[in-house]
Structure prediction request, 337 residues.
Amino acid sequence: MDSSDHGLINNDGMQIPLLVNEEDKDDDYRIEPLSKARGIPARYVVAIWAFLGFVCLYSLRVNLSVAIVAMTNPQSTKNESVEACPSMDNSNSSSFQPYIYGEFDWTPKTQGFILGSFFYGYVLTQVIGGILAERFGAKWIFGGSIFIAGILTLLTPLAARLHVNLLIAIRLLIGAFEAPAFPSATALWGRWIPPLERSIIPPIASTGKEIGIIITTPLVSQLCASTFLGGWPSAFYVFGILSCLWFIGWAFYAYNSPSEHPHITYEEKLYLLRSIPKQKKSPTPWYDIITCVPLYGIAIQHICTNFVFYILLTSLPTYFSTILRFNLKQNGIMFAI
Prediction:
């Protein structure tokens, strides 16, 4: 099957128009698939792998928040001016388990730098994610972000044992490489998801973020409390390896656009090419953006929401451990909840 400027040419030499007539422009967003394709549609396969990618993305982001409890000596975080929950100090409780004394004597200030370094890198590269996706393809920017972050996660235990500043640098780089993932995913949806499905498929795929947190935190606590691969280092080895394995599947099953997909059905390709508006390059309306008052409202809401969310994401495990006196397994479960 070949393509022309006005449509697709099937094996019989018949040209099938893809462009919508001028009088039918109002119906662009109501184009329905011609028929149900066999098996899982290619765009759903891309969305499934993107969902798994978001799971990996957030597993690499939050694993340190729980693992740092097992990595740090509890005496390093002790603050005599703050009282721990007395009810959790009762050693007769059936749920009480002795603390795992970590190998690092990091002060709360040092731990703050370690946990916050991810976000220092995150703010540096998020803006360019969309630009990189347009230039090199959203598939490789999204996948590469998670793959490189996974490789750096595998190096985290070594970095922590060499020097705390090296660990901070590794976390900063992880944040810098993860940041382009979300803008590149948006670019990918623009090429794969028709307007009728954009309120359904991308949000479902994005739930991988929350699923990643729910899965990762209890699993990290279990790994840190075990002797598997040395205890806390396994929290980085396991999720680093899983992210690299995910990238292999992503490289084989995801494509930048329907036109690049070698196994997409003719019906689905026709449907997507007809229903997804052709992207046109136009100058960025900076003046309209700067003077758009509703935009500032959305920005303020986004900043405030993320400010609270990420404070909880990074600090809750330490709070559960030092103040509420939860053991590692309780910590991971409560954090997930």
Q: What stands out?
A: Confidence is low (pLDDT under 50) at residues 1-6, 8-32, 87-98.
